[in-house]
Write a structure and sequence with these properties.
Strand order of the largest sheet: 1-3-2-6-8-7-12-13-11-9-10
Helix content: 25-40%
Order of helices and strands: HHEHEHEEEHEHEEHEHHEHHHHEHHEEH
CATH topology of the domain at 11-253: Amidase signature (AS) enzymes
Strand content: 5-15%
Structural class: alpha/beta
Largest sheet: 11 strands, mixed
Radius of gyration: 21 Å
CATH class of the domain at 11-253: Alpha Beta
Number of strands: 13
Distance between the termini: 38 Å
CATH superfamily of the domain at 11-253: Amidase signature (AS) domain
Length: about 475
Amino acid sequence: MAVRDFSQLTIARWLEGLARGAWRASELVEYYLKQIEKINPGLNAYLEVFDDALTAAEAIDRRLASGEPLRALEGVPIAVKDNILIKGRRASAGSKMLENYTAAYDATVIAKLRAAGAVFLGRTNMDEFAMGASTENSAFGPTKNPHDPERVAGGSSGGSAAALAAGLALAALGSDTGGSVRQPAAFCGVLGLKPTYGAVSRFGLIALAPSFDQIGPLARTADDVERIFEVIKGRDENDSTSLSEKVRPLISKVSRSNLEKFKKFKLGVPRRFLDQGLNRAGAENFSVATASLAAAGYEIMDIDLPTAPYALAAYYVIMPAEASSNLARYDGIRYGSYFPGQDLFDDYRTTRGNGFGLEVRRRVILGTYALSAGYYDAYYAKAFAVKQAIASEFAAAFNQVDAILTPTTPAPAFKLGERLADPVQMYLEDLFTVPANLAGLPAISIPSGRAASGLPFGLQIMAPPGGEGRLFQIAKHYANL
């Protein structure tokens, strides 16, 4: 029997075929396992492929054969970022410090996906402790971009984005602290969502900066992203920052409305902010994208976000400060791998020196400095004031417009090794994505054409808190233009 080609499959089409018995869950998982075996060695997208994926799919086949009803994500094979806990599986966060850590419980998102019938294919590569924009900071080697193996896949969720783009999963999970879902999605030509802060539980996510971190889905279509989001969203008593029941029903209710309604949306463009770092090719691509939306009936309106240019600086004070506090526990005695020294102090120094990579050590030092006596008010307090000002500016902007457009990244994917020696240039990759995290907004990156080199561009759409449904509908409409 000929092997089916599932390369163009969507979740909707998969569920429709599964419902009518056109294929089996084990058939799709076998397809992806073979693709991973063939393609992954050249990309390093997966760090581990789970040996029970096929067993889980076979159990789904038996379940459906017995007449059980179809669940929301029945048999959907998903790749999971290496910082999201799956009970009984390793979760290293891309670090030698946690190389041998095995999760004792499921993250809330994993429990929800499991209950919805999803199958977990494996854990994907990432920048160590989610610190990076290229997945080159992984302790287990970089992930390569499927569109050009000499270029980065983005980060820190580069493994998830690359696996999806290379046809090694039907969907994927990542985490987004300052753009770590959206930026690799743009570089790899797929869709990636950062939900409203608190819309998705962080319980079971290895934290980088808890006031920014959000788990988000990556997929090939807006409908697929929405389906996953609908499953993983919601209040979780294990996460005190997750949204209350009063707020949760507001999220994505608008997504079931008619697309025609959205042709009169006002879309804001912060042009002065975009002039800060957008290259010529990126500017041309963004101009084409906004022109397409205008031709489709959207009103494009210039807006001003005067504090937005300071977002990156504020983020790179607050995020390292939180990271410094979070990572203090990894000393080889309480948590993490142990590298012995000559005495107790040397134990700490040797363990943290060998267990953490260069970028993690750099950010821990920066964060500790920003929080130290005499510098807290000069750095952290001012950065936090900028964060609040940015949130206020976005709130005011959303009184004028329904959504805000920017490019996802200043330029397409850069070459491997090109920016490793210049951390500031690497940090600038987050220029357009960081404001959404500072303000707690939902934001999605959608494919927006290609550069002359063939590399993908991404278009970022931001909405008010709880406006995920608005993002999905605009993304769906844009895909059909």
